[in-house]
Amino acid sequence: MSSSTHLLFSLLLFSAAATLSPILATDHIVGANRGWNPGMNYTLWANNQTFYVGDLISFRYQKNQYNVFEVNQTGYDNCTTEFAVGNWSSGKDFIPLNKAKRYYFICGNGQCFSGMKVSVLVHPLSPPPSAAVGDVEHSPTSSAAPVGVQRRGFGALVVSFVVICFGFGWM
Ligand SMILES: *[C@@H]1O[C@H](CO)[C@@H](O)[C@H](O)[C@H]1NC(C)=O
Ligand SMILES: *[C@@H]1O[C@H](CO)[C@@H](O)[C@H](O)[C@H]1NC(C)=O
Ligand SMILES: *[C@@H]1O[C@H](CO)[C@@H](O)[C@H](O)[C@H]1NC(C)=O
Ligand SMILES: *[C@@H]1O[C@H](CO)[C@@H](O)[C@H](O)[C@H]1NC(C)=O
Ligand SMILES: *[C@@H]1O[C@H](CO)[C@@H](O)[C@H](O)[C@H]1NC(C)=O
Predict the structure, then answer these.
(1) For residue range 105-126, what is the model confidence (pLDDT) as tens digits?
(2) CA–centroid distance for 161 within its chain
(3) Is 102 helix (H, G, I), strand (E, B) or coil?
(4) Ligand that lies nearest to the alpha carbon of residue 68, given by its number in the listed order
(5) What three-state secondary structure class fits 103?
């Protein structure tokens, strides 16, 4: 294989990876441009997003003023960090959502009582069997799932391409 063909494949691959990397993992910035601050209703923010396994949730705030604790539902409901399973305080914390479950985050300095608490439900990448059956004729209620599957499907395509290139010794 000529070196120019090799170069072409490399360029194709790099541009594909650069274009698709933001699609593979969504970074959900808590509170969007208003960040992690008191006086917000983060339930409204969370209800406006769909979270998938592998996505990130990120908290942006004044370092040393606020922080982030991952707790369970009891900690969330009662605003207590007593049973916290993790804590962050950099002011720009990126937390991977690696499991399909409900996550709970609160601020640990008392501001939880002023609204600094957020709970997010993380969905698995593959739709449940019941949703997969309706794949051909999408029901309105399952419209969110296929979108997430689609963006991952695209990522899987790139991975396959990389694997094939390696397999044929193109890289
Ligand atoms: C935040 O909004 C949700 C959804 O509308 C509502 O159920 C909840 O009571 C609100 N929380 C506060 C503290 O206002
Ligand atoms: C919901 O998301 C849309 C699109 O990102 C945005 O325009 C809108 O302001 C959001 N609403 C709330 C309540 O965050
Ligand atoms: C949260 O964790 C504490 C300590 O492990 C436990 O006692 C409590 O039952 C948990 N709450 C929930 C809702 O699982
Ligand atoms: C949470 O708060 C409620 C009401 O204040 C209280 O009854 C309950 O015991 C608390 N739960 C824990 C695990 O502290
Ligand atoms: C924060 O997490 C670290 C481990 O990452 C732990 O050692 C520390 O005790 C935690 N701090 C609080 C206040 O829970």
Answers:
(1) 999 999 999 999 999 999 998 6
(2) 24
(3) strand
(4) 5
(5) strand
**Which residue has a Cα nearest atom 4 of ligand 3?**
83
Which amino acid is present at 120?
V
> What angle do the packed helices 3-24 and 144-167 form, to 10 degrees?
160
- In this structure, what token pair is assigned to residue 9? 């494949």
The answer to whether the predicted template modeling score (pTM) of the entire model surpasses 0.85 is: no
**Ligand 4 atom 8 nearest Cα:** 78
Q: Which CATH number fits domain 25-126: 3.40.50.150, 3.30.559.10, 3.30.2010.30, 2.60.40.420?
A: 2.60.40.420
More confident residue, 143 or 8: 8
User: Which atom of ligand 2 sits closest to the CA of residue 45?
Assistant: 14
Residue 160 phi, psi (nearest 5) = -60, -45
pLDDT on residue 25: 85
Return the number of other C-beta atoms located less than 10 Å from residue 68's C-beta: 25
